UniProtKB/TrEMBL annotation:
InterPro entries: Beta-barrel_OMP_2, OMP/PagP_B-barrel
Species the sequence originates in: Pedobacter steynii
Signal peptide extent: 1-19
Lineage: Bacteria, Pseudomonadati, Bacteroidota, Sphingobacteriia, Sphingobacteriales
Outer membrane protein beta-barrel domain boundaries: 19-198
Protein name: Outer membrane protein beta-barrel domain-containing protein
Parts forming coiled coils: none
Length: 220
């Protein structure tokens, strides 16, 4: 019993010392996202960047003076814009689809910090897992024949249900880089490369998220 208590005491002391010597930094971040998707079959359609935003928080665990592990949680907008044009039997049809899907994402990034005086550059990468919580698809179209045009507009919620077309869960890889001032303020950019197919039962079509982001942050 005495040996067990002694071992627990030594282990507790070691963990306490480790926590005291490993700097832990909390941070907040916000900015703009420019999402789109890659689609295995998009013939006749022109995929474009959408525009949305993100807000989140991070916890940075320093590993020595150069490296750190930075998990976090982010609320962000993904989706895409797609334009298509086709002509059939003398009718010219133009369609624009805009999809906005809100996600909660948990990244775990591994960073390298490069000192520049009292400031620093940082670059990193790591995996993420995200869950789609809501979304909306909007479609605007026009049909023109013999100089006459008819326009239509529709909007519907993204269906994540059993018979829906969109999967909730998603995983991928993040890449990021930025510059942080000595006062904790930073500017950064990132790219999210989705690796999982977010489409359900879409006749073999694979759809994966692609998200470019630019923002600012502050570390406490």
């Amino acid at each position: 019993m005495k040996k067990l208590l002694l071992s627990l005491t030594i282990a507790t002391a070691a963990l306490t010392a480790s926590a005291q010597t490993t700097p832990i930094t909390f941070g907040v971040k916000a900015g703009a996202t420019f999402p789109t998707v890659s689609m295995s079959e998009s013939e006749g359609s022109d995929l474009k960047l959408n525009t949305s935003f993100y807000v989140g928080g991070t916890v940075d665990f320093a590993i020595g003076e150069t490296f750190s592990i930075q998990p976090g949680i982010t609320f962000l907008g993904k989706g895409f814009k797609m334009n298509s044009t086709e002509t059939e039997e003398g009718v010219n049809v133009k369609t624009t689809i805009k999809s906005n899907v809100w996600h909660i994402e948990v990244p775990v990034n591994f960073l390298a910090n490069i000192p520049v005086g009292d400031d620093k550059f940082f670059i990193g990468a790591g995996p993420y897992y995200g869950i789609a919580i809501s979304g909306k698809n909007k479609a605007e179209g026009s049909a023109t024949q013999d100089g006459q045009t008819v326009k239509i507009s529709t909007s519907e919620d993204v269906d994540f249900g059993k018979d829906g077309s969109h999967k909730r869960g998603e995983f991928g890889v993040n890449f990021l880089g930025g510059y942080q001032l000595s006062n904790g303020f930073n500017i950064h950019a990132g790219y999210g490369l989705g690796l999982s197919n977010i489409a359900k039962d879409a006749d073999g079509i694979k759809v994966k998220n692609r998200v470019l982001s630019v923002g600012v942050g502050f570390s406490f």
